[in-house]
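Quick one: structure for this chain?
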Amino acid sequence: TPLQIAILPHNPYEARSFAPSHRQIFDLTNWDNARMVSIPGQSGRITSPHYADQLNLWQNGEHHPMLWSRDAVEAQAEARLALHPKANEG
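Got it. Here's what it folds into:
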């Protein structure tokens, strides 16, 4: 349910409502058509440009692509991080 929100039915004006902070929509016929939004953003570091970069999407009921195939991911990648194990000394 992409835009689910809840209130207390017996007291709908009380400030105890809630809404999901992460939404996903999957197209099971094409995984690269999946959409998602996670607030406030993709990073937990307040100094990161991705800290709150999804807040406006979430507020407007919008989503961004959640890519699965290697080709789709590489076509949209901003950077690549390569981690290599330290060579054994001995």
